[in-house]
Amino acid sequence: MSNTKRESRCDVCIYKSYLFNYLTKQETALVNLNKKEIVIEKGEIICQEGKPIKYLVYLREGLMKLYKTGAGRTQQIISIATPQDFIGLLSVFSNTEYVYSLSALEDSSLCMIELDVIKKIILQNGKFALSLIEKMNKISDVVLSNKVELGVKQLRGRIAHILLMFAEQVYRSDIYELPVSRKEIGELIDMRTENVVRILSEFRKDQLIGIEGKKIEIRNKPMLKKISELG
After folding, report:
1. What is the distance between the alpha carbons of residues 107 and 68, in angstroms, rounded to a whole number?
2. Fold for domain 3-149?
3. Do 101 and 73 contact (CB within 8 A), yes or no?
4. Which of 11, 91, 105, 146 is most deeply buried (CB count within 10 A of its CB)?
């Protein structure tokens, strides 16, 4: 169950986004008065496709997945959200309803800022507005680049890419607990679950990785990178 709390002040919060450096003291105080902090458990849904957009969501700690639900309740994972970043920026200003769902891959802490307050600040603070646009453009570039890059890779290249992404961009360690199931990996890189399982087993047999339950150990990063690059 989600747990709402109001403890941290935005001006001294250690998880504060760099975008807030462009706010005045009065604007920061306004955000502080119109946000709520939420702690959610793994698997909990915080935003649901088709529901009205009321908040700008900021991930303080944890890991989230952004996904759409297709025919037969199948999921297509759009992206993985990492700490200290806004989630879903590409759609919150262009739609009145969520075009995706957002759920926790692990226990997470969020800030929910009232969207109307952010829109008001955008209208009166050009530097903040410009920095937000730049952030949105970078997110768009990354999402498109990842989709194109994964789209041209063969199956082994896709798996290598995802394993390296978690090691280098999420956990910054060659040993980590895989936060997604084999099925979710398939949803993220458009691959059947059985192929994900088979290739992970092949990588383990080839001594590229170690697997113990959800624990992953990257044992031959140069070769894994080569597989990822060559596709």
Report:
1. 21
2. Jelly Rolls (2.60.120)
3. no
4. 105
Q: Is the pTM of this model over 0.85?
A: no
User: What kind of fold does domain 153-230 have according to CATH?
Assistant: Arc Repressor Mutant, subunit A (1.10.10)
The span from the CA of 77 to the CA of 57, in Å, is 18
Question: Edge-to-edge strand order for the sheet containing 209-212?
Answer: 175-177, 215-218, 209-212
Coil, helix or strand for 100?
A: coil
- What are the residue boundaries of the structural domains of the chain, listed by start? 3-149, 153-230
User: Residue 115 — φ and ψ, nearest 5°?
Assistant: -65, -35
Q: What tens-digit pLDDT sequence spans the chain (231 residues)?
A: 556 555 677 777 777 888 889 999 999 999 999 999 999 999 999 999 999 999 999 999 999 999 988 776 778 888 889 898 888 887 888 889 988 899 999 999 999 999 999 999 999 999 999 999 998 888 888 877 777 777 788 999 999 999 999 999 889 999 999 999 999 999 888 899 999 999 999 999 999 999 998 999 999 999 999 999 887
- Would the CA dihedral through 140, 145, 146, 150 be positive or negative? positive
Residue 199 has φ and ψ, to the nearest 5°, of: -70, -35
